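Work Package 3 (structural annotation) set out to generate three-dimensional models for the target panel prioritized at the project kickoff. During this period the team completed the workflow that converts sequence records into discrete structure tokens, so that structures can be stored uniformly alongside our sequence database. As a representative example, we reproduce one entry of 221 residues exactly as it appears in the project archive.
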Amino acid sequence: MIKLDEDDYPSARERMVRDQIERRGVSDYRVLEAMREVPRHLFVPRDLWPEAYDDRPLPIGRGQTISQPYIVAYMTEALNLKDDARVLEIGTGSGYQAAVLSRIAREVYTIERVPELSREARQRFEELGYTNIFCHLGDGTRGWDAEAPFDAVMVTAGGTQIPMPLTEQLALGGVLVIPVGRNEYGQNLMRVTRMPDGDFREEALLGVAFVRLIGEHGWKE
């Protein structure tokens, strides 16, 4: 861990993108630029700012974490976003992943079940001027039917299965990325594509470890 002064954060982000993300194969320039732009340190507790650009997840309180930068970039690239995409994110957390998505997609709709996290993320978005992110407090495994269909859905918590409401809310050609597994300490990152005929194609991408996806169609509290 390198201790950082306030003026060091832009160069730390550049090193993060170069060393942790580009060198590991993420190549979509829009994803790389979004990772360079969004100030990750502002999405973690202030006492963790010096660690914000390390290659690891960090705690954000309430038993939740902000994902490792590489995983954020990898999952974002896996969505194959177009500039006019409408994205649904399940698990707002601190808001970092939604912020990265918002630099690429036209609109981001994000759901969080913990009131304090949802409120704090909404405040961060307002302070940073991210006006194309829309927040909702509720059970993310049910999706956001009133705003469907979505061109992409990202789930930032591990579920025991793929929630049917999320696949149903995908537009034709849309992509869902979600960690799936019955071991809460390890899942497979799955990509589900809704084909033009309405069928779904599933791909296993890599092994990951996410906190539990809690809800009607996920882990029970």
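The two ends are 35 Å apart (CA to CA).
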